[in-house]
Known about the structure:
This protein is an alpha+beta fold and 200 residues long. 34% of the residues lie in helices and 28% in strands.
Amino acid sequence: MEIKKAGKDKHTWFGTGGIILVLGLFILLSPTFHIASAEPPVEDKSCLMYAYTGSDLHYFLVQNNSLLFGNNITVEHNCQTAQVFVNGTLAVQTNNSKFVFSLGNANHNISLVGDNEFFRNYSNVQVLPSRLTWAADYYDWQNSYFDLTFEEYISISSATAKANWASILSIVTVFTLVTMVYWHLINGYVDRNYCEEVVE
């Protein structure tokens, strides 16, 4: 029977440390890894155009079936030329990147046309005056049973507001005048009928 000595085998001199060392040298000396590369993104030069109105610090984007407060419509774009058609009629054509034009209080169909085949059509766009308090009046008008156009309702609402202010001012005026007249009457009565005696 042969006894074998416990120890390292000739074929295992390499060991774990040697494997790590060889792998590290292989990684360091290998050519750089190729990473998939792409061209930088090309800036999209397509035309973009939008329109909005403003009332105080509130802005309303033009959309289909929209309700806009403010008669001045602002259009911003990055096209070379811009055209705006209102109810089929050319309203504005310009090269400026931002411009403003006015519209009356009514329903409109607005078309925005730019270069590179840009075209947007917005139908049933209701333009109202630039007072946001009339939004409540608008909803009152919608839910009322009166046979009035919205413009007539706004003029009636405006007249009612003016009548309310006139009533308040007339009440203040009458109160001031009555107080002054009574003050003078009471002062005159006291001066004629009573005398003041000074006692030391």
